[in-house]
Specification:
- It holds the Pfam family Sdh5.
- One of its GO terms (cellular component) is mitochondrial matrix.
- There is one protein chain.
- By secondary structure, this protein is mainly alpha-helical.
- It has a domain of 92 residues: DNA polymerase, domain 1 (Orthogonal Bundle), CATH 1.10.150.250.
- The protein contains 8 helices and no strands.
């Protein structure tokens, strides 16, 4: 009787979640792994199985569409100028920076130097390029404002 109930539950779950492995319900050796975030779910695809030009295009789009205007501007302009010059390793590192564990506002505060950098970003060559870009851009905007004001 309990087995019939379990089978019924499996069929219901399969209708709701068609990607679940049906056999995983009955096997002790297999397990269903469900990604906690979109970043986790796409990590393998993003970091390993993507052509370099596809990666550049995706990173350019993601740099322009961040969710907060400040990062849209800073990362979008950086991506326009720097992504074509980056090699695969640098692109992967940039991908980890913009799609990684840091929240959008934290990323902005790191770029504007309002928060101390975490250890993984302090020694990152790509993040240093990004910081230099933001510094030069800020100086250029300040200089332009002086002449206009």
């Amino acid at each position: 009787m309990a087995l019939c109930g379990t089978v019924r539950q499996c069929f219901k779950a399969r209708k709701q979640f068609p990607r679940l492995d049906f056999l995983a319900w009955f096997s002790d050796q297999s397990s269903v792994t469900i990604a906690q975030t979109a970043h986790e779910y796409n990590r393998e695809l993003r970091l390993e199985n993507e052509y370099i030009e596809t990666k550049r295009s995706r990173l350019l789009y993601q740099s322009r569409k961040r969710g907060i205007l400040e990062n849209d501007i800073l990362l979008g302009e950086f991506a326009d100028q720097m992504l074509p010059k980056m090699n695969l390793l640098q692109l992967m590192r940039y991908d980890e920076i913009i799609n990684g564990e840091h929240m959008e506002w934290d990323l902005y505060y790191f770029l504007s130097r309002k928060k101390n950098l975490p250890e993984n970003l302090k020694n990152c060559e790509v993040f240093q390029l990004l910081l230099d870009f933001v510094k030069k851009r800020t100086e250029a905007v300040s200089e332009k404002a002086k002449w206009q004001g």
